């Protein structure tokens, strides 16, 4: 069993001491301190909400050029926000993550167990993107670290990119444009097609796949899709029972599955064999989903007439040289192919998507940090309660993340029984449970006792007391 995590306070005068496991000497009353003020949730919040603690004590590290919308929301809370444009290599990440309560990343930063083990103060991770495969979600949950993402704010951007790629491949636009850049006029119609009447095969009919389905049908394509779950078809799209059935029928195959052990090399030699001769492959999901040497072989043989890759098995942490990387030994082969579009993971990189993601994830982080609300979390149970207001002084919000084992609620309620519990909610997800209780008429000593007693339970993963 994983031992409970002790949150280590950063240096400095921490008047939010009651939020974390701290010694009594640093404890100050949340009620009498000036730390709760109507200005707490300045961003789109009712002015009468309580500020839960000195928000300026919260340290946030934002990596990978998280959009300004997100930065602004977090800064407006008074949090200390450090912003970096790139991801960080593991050794530097470990140094930085030791100190912070919150980290915001995109798809490049690998938050493995090895890294998270060092994150002694970390309360929450914000993935300012769709994918969460770069985070060890289970390790995070087991250590009381909630993870949030933006499940669909860039779906439309990816779908539009794929539409552009379908036409670009069908008309060999990349090759013609490259030739003109080199000064060559090469007017051809051989093997250039309209997309009207062609069949698009979508693998993974989730947010992106289904959005793409609508756009493709509007341009006269026939849409089929394969998904591991049975899903309602949009428009006149049709679900096919197997991946092979899709590969055999589609003129264009486009991949929109998450990175999982099951999707690693989902498209390899055997799948290219099944595809129609002269068909096209598009991958804007994750680089591991396509076996790159198998794709190179299929393109050289003429089986596949064109491909678009937005994602790669090894992507760099920052902009700059890429195919010189030793890990990408197939880089030269890819660059030498005809009718292949290579883009640097830009599927979700539009102003619209990045702004929306910045707002969505930053707001989820604020709700979690300030209120303990987990709505939208991908790894801990989703629990919500309304915000406390200034009309309700001397309240405390108790948050207890614990192992989902028999008898915990009885013990927690024995601890809370001496107080007036206004409201209590609890939910579980696998072996993790999340309990929130609003307790009224509590004094400084009561809060300390509640914390000490909850901390002493063997089921405890993390205790937080807000207000
Ligand atoms: N290129 C980019 O910039 C970019 C942007 C956004 C998302 N993505 C990637 O695209 C992926 C899909 O995004 P989404 O929002 O549509 O996700 P989603 O979760 O809404 O949909 C994924 C679908 O894939 C299906 N699926 C899972 N495993 C499968 C399998 N083995 N075979 C067939 N279907 C399977 C699921 O049932 C689900 O319907 C994300 O996980 C992310 O990795 C890339
Ligand atoms: O998961 C995602 O949302 C996409 O892969 C985009 O990732 P990015 O934010 O790192 O571009």
Can you offer a commentary on this structure?
It is an enzyme of class 1 (oxidoreductase). Pfam families: 2-Hacid_dh, 2-Hacid_dh_C. Its EC number is 1.1.1.399, 1.1.1.95. It comes from Sordaria brevicollis. Catalyzes the reversible oxidation of 3-phospho-D-glycerate to 3-phosphonooxypyruvate, the first step of the phosphorylated L-serine biosynthesis pathway. Also catalyzes the reversible oxidation of 2-hydroxyglutarate to 2-oxoglutarate. This protein is α/β, with parallel strands linked by helices and 467 residues long. It is 28% helix and 18% strand. It has 14 helices and 16 strands. It has helices at 68-76, 90-97, 113-116, 137-142, 155-170, 173-181, 207-218, 243-249, 269-274, 292-300, 331-335, 351-371, 408-416, 444-455; strands at residues 59-62, 80-83, 102-105, 124-127, 146-148, 199-203, 222-226, 238-239, 252-255, 279-283, 304-309, 340-342, 396-403, 420-429, 432-440, 460-466. It has a seven-stranded parallel sheet, sandwiched between helices. A five-stranded parallel sheet has the order 2-1-3-4-5. Helix 1 runs parallel beside helix 12 (351-371) and helix 5 (155-170) packs across helix 7 (207-218). The protein binds nicotinamide-adenine-dinucleotide and 3-phosphoglyceric acid. 3-phosphoglyceric acid (3PG) is lined by residues 106-108, 129-131, 154, 345, 347-349.
Can you tell me the overall shape?
Answer: elongated
Low-confidence stretches: 8-47
Work out the number of β strands.
16
Which cofactor or ligand species appear?
nicotinamide-adenine-dinucleotide, 3-phosphoglyceric acid
| Helix/strand class | alpha/beta
Largest sheet: 7 strands, parallel
Which band does the percent of strand residues land in?
15-25%
Compute the CA-based radius of gyration.
26 Å
Number of helices: 14
The percent range for helix content is 25-40%
Q: Biggest sheet, strands in spatial order?
A: 8-7-6-9-10-11-12
Task: Please provide the ordered H/E string of secondary-structure elements.
Answer: EHEHEHEHEHHEHEEHEHEHEHEHEHEEHE
The N- to C-terminal Cα distance equals: 31 Å
Mean pLDDT: 89
Domain ACT: 397-467
EC number: 1.1.1.399, 1.1.1.95
InterPro entries: ACT-like_dom_sf, ACT_dom, D-2-hydroxyacid_DH, D-isomer_2_OHA_DH_cat_dom, D-isomer_DH_CS, D-isomer_DH_CS1, D-isomer_DH_NAD-bd, NAD(P)-bd_dom_sf
Catalytic activity: (R)-2-hydroxyglutarate + NAD(+) = 2-oxoglutarate + NADH + H(+); (2R)-3-phosphoglycerate + NAD(+) = 3-phosphooxypyruvate + NADH + H(+)
């Amino acid at each position: 069993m994983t031992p409970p995590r002790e949150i280590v306070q950063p240096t400095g005068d921490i008047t939010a001491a009651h939020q974390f496991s701290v010694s009594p000497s640093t404890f100050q009353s949340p009620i009498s301190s000036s730390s709760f003020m109507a200005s707490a949730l300045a961003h789109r919040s009712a002015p009468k909400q309580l500020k839960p603690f000195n928000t300026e004590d919260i340290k946030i590290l934002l990596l990978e050029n998280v959009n300004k919308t997100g930065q602004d929301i977090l800064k407006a809370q008074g949090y200390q926000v450090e912003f970096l444009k790139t991801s960080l290599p593991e050794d530097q990440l470990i140094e930085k993550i030791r100190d912070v309560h919150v980290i915001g990343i995109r798809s490049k930063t690998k938050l493995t167990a090895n890294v998270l083990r060092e994150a002694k103060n970390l309360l929450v991770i914000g993935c300012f993107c769709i994918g969460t495969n770069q985070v060890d979600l289970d390790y995070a949950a087991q250590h009381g670290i909630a993870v949030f993402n933006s499940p669909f704010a860039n779906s439309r951007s990816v779908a539009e990119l794929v539409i552009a790629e379908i036409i670009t491949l069908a008309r060999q636009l990349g090759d013609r444009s490259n030739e003109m850049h080199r000064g060559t006029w090469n007017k051809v119609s051989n093997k250039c097609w309209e997309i009207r009447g062609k069949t698009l095969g979508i693998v993974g009919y989730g947010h992106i796949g289904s959005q793409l389905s609508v756009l493709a049908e509007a341009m006269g394509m026939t849409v089929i899709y394969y998904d591991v779950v049975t899903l309602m078809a949009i428009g006149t799209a049709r679900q096919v029972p197997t991946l092979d059935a899709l590969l055999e029928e589609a003129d264009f195959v486009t991949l929109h599955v998450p990175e999982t052990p099951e999707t690693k090399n989902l498209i390899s030699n055997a799948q290219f064999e099944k595809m129609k001769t002269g068909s096209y492959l598009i991958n804007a999901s994750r680089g591991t989903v396509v076996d790159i040497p198998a794709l190179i072989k299929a393109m050289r043989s003429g089986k596949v007439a064109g491909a678009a890759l937005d994602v790669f098995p090894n992507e760099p942490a920052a902009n700059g040289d890429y195919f010189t990387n030793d890990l990408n030994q197939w880089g030269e082969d890819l660059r030498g192919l005809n009718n292949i579009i290579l883009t640097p993971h830009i599927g979700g990189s539009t102003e619209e998507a990045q702004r929306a993601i910045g707002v969505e994830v930053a707001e989820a982080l604020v709700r979690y940090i300030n209120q303990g609300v987990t709505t939208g979390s991908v790894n801990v149970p989703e629990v919500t309660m309304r915000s406390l207001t200034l009309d309700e002084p001397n309240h405390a919000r108790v948050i207890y993340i614990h192992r989902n084992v028999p008898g915990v609620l009885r013990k927690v309620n024995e601890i809370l029984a001496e107080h007036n519990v206004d409201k209590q909610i609890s939910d579980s997800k696998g072996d993790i449970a999340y309990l929130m209780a609003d307790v009224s008429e509590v004094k400084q000593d009561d809060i300390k006792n509640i914390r000490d007693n909850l901390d002493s339970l063997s089921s405890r993963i993390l205790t937080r007391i807000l207000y």
